[in-house]
Amino acid sequence: MGQKLPQPGFWIAVLLVLLVLGIQIALSIPLAITNLVIEFGLHRAAPHLERQPILIGCINIVACGGAIALGLWLNRRSFRRAFPNWRISTQQALGVAVSLIGAAVLLSEADNAFRSVLPPPRFLMDVMKEMFFSQGNLVSNVWLLVIVAPITEELLFRGIILQGLLCRYRSTTAVVITAILFTLLHVNPWQFCSALTLGLVLGWFYLRSGSLAICILGHAIYNSMVVIFPLLPWNIPGMTTPPDLTKVDFQPWWLDVFGLVVLLVGLWIFRRTTPPVPPIINEETGNSTDN
Predict the structure, then answer these.
(1) Quick one: CA dihedral 258, 115, 245, 54, positive or negative?
(2) Interval 48-93: pLDDT, tens
(3) How many degrees, rounded to 5, is the angle at CA 139 between CA 92 and CA 87?
(4) Measured between alpha carbons, how far is 108 from 259 in angstroms, rounded to an integer?
(5) What secondary structure, in 3-state letters, does 252-274 show?
């Protein structure tokens, strides 16, 4: 039977997320001050260091790394003992890739619908365009979105937080709580739908397989779509063009149907090739948690 981490409970999980946010803010303040010095002291264009994906990735490593280290310390575990299962088969990888590509297509449309109801402020869209759609940011975006974020966030959320909550709640409850905390970490209402859905899917992947490698792979594939969509040689309204405050384009209906079919096929492949793991055992109480 599987052995999981006794910590964190709900409130400690919340504190871990707040710790990440606090470290991110604290490390971003010197960058903002540097911008002010350059702009008003040296009378030059501010480099907007806090918007540079390379620097954001480094801050994310420190912030999530600190929370992960605290989680390991609370459980008196080494990294290797806390995260023992890194196995992933070719068939599982195929299922993860297919399902997350389909999810990316569908959630792109969900984001379009959300923006049509509640347009984001112009400053936020300017920040997003500068970070993710500026020429020359491809390598730095891959570093942040495809490498750093999947590894650090999955180690924290599906690794530390979900493992702890599984010892206290039914599996569905633990996955939902973890997904909500994962969504709140992004502090962006316009990412709510996509972040929450991604958190739920990755939580199910973990319940089914017990492998963090699968979660990291799925997270990386989903985030890579943000990099790949604008690079596609076709002009697909609502998907390949950068977000624009002035209007909201919706994707063609056939693309949404395609995304749904691909998502369902991917989930079917993964479920078929991944036998459910045994019940989770709380090391302190000996009680099992259903999967």
Answers:
(1) negative
(2) 787 788 999 999 999 999 999 999 999 999 898 888 888 899 999 9
(3) 20
(4) 10
(5) CHHHHHHHHHHHHHHHHHHHHHC
> In terms of residues, how long is the chain?
291
Interhelix angle 192-209/90-117, rounded to 10 degrees, is: 160
Query: Nearest Cα to 258, choosing from 272, 271, 239?
Result: 239
Cβ-in-10-Å burial (0-12, 13-18, 19+) of 260 comes to middle
Q: How many other CB atoms sit within 10 Å of the CB of residue 73?
A: 10
Task: Flag whether pLDDT at 288 surpasses 90.
Answer: no
| Total Cβ atoms within 10 A of residue 135 | 5
pTM of the model: 0.88
Q: Are 250 and 109 a contacting pair, CB within 8 Å?
A: yes
Phi, psi dihedrals of residue 145, rounded to the nearest 5°:
-85, -35
- For every residue of the chain, DSSP letters joined together read -EEE-----HHHHHHHHHHHHHHHHHHHHHHHHHHHIIIIIS-S----GGG-HHHHHHHHHHHHHHHHHHHHHHTT--HHHHS------HHHHHHHHHHHHHHHHHHHHHHHHHHHHSPPPHHHHHHHHHHHSSTT-HHHHIIIIIIIHHHHHHIIIIIIIHHHHHTTS-HHHHHHHHHHHHHHHT--GGGHHHHHHHHHHHHHHHHHH--HHHHHHHHHHHHHHHHHGGG-SS--TTTTSPP-TT--PPPPHHHHHHHHHHHHHHHHHHHHH-PPPPPEEETTT--EE--
Question: Which token pair is 113?
Answer: 């619908």
Q: How far apart are CA 211 and CA 197, in angstroms?
A: 19
Amino acid, res. 90: T
In the chain, domain spans: 2-289
Q: Can you read off the two tokens belonging to residue 10?
A: 């709900």
Beta strands 2-4; 288-289: pairing state: unpaired
